[in-house]
Specification:
Layout (H helix, E strand, L loop, with lengths): L4 H25 E5 L4 E4 L8 H37 L14 H6 L11
Antiparallel strand pairs: 1-2
Helix pairs in contact: 1-2
The chain binds zinc ion.
Length: 118
């Protein structure tokens, strides 16, 4: 473990906070399919059944989809990072297996690679 306990705990707290924020934003435009893996489905309000209503729904869905996918991707990397903390493999570059710089982790606690590989 390249990180001392205090730093690791700080990073874990920011990951948990980020997880909460992402879940909140996702909850507005999507419904959770599997909370453990961070899998969400984009929802759209059922405004009505006539043709104009359906067009609005599709428009809304098309607007939300890329946002949802980005948030979902972020949430999944946060969850992955938390899993790595549990397993004790957190803080190592997925590419070269070297320690990830602490400064980089502080800026982005879910970073999976070191500065060189990222
Ligand atoms: Zn690396």
């Amino acid at each position: 473990m390249p990180l001392d306990k205090k730093t690791l705990e700080e990073l874990k707290q920011s990951l948990l906070k980020e997880q909460g924020d992402l879940e909140k934003s996702l909850g507005k435009i999507a419904k959770p399919v599997d909370k453990k893996t961070g899998d969400y489905d984009t929802t759209f309000e059922n405004l009505g059944t006539d043709r104009n209503d359906n067009a609005t729904e599709i428009e809304q869905y098309t607007d939300n989809l890329p946002v949802e996918l980005t948030l979902e991707k972020n949430l999944q990397s946060v969850l992955e990072a938390l899993k790595r903390i549990e397993k004790g493999t957190y803080g190592f570059c997925e590419n070269c297996q070297k320690e990830i710089e602490v400064e980089r982790l502080k800026a982005n606690p879910s970073a999976e690679t070191c500065v060189k590989c990222g």
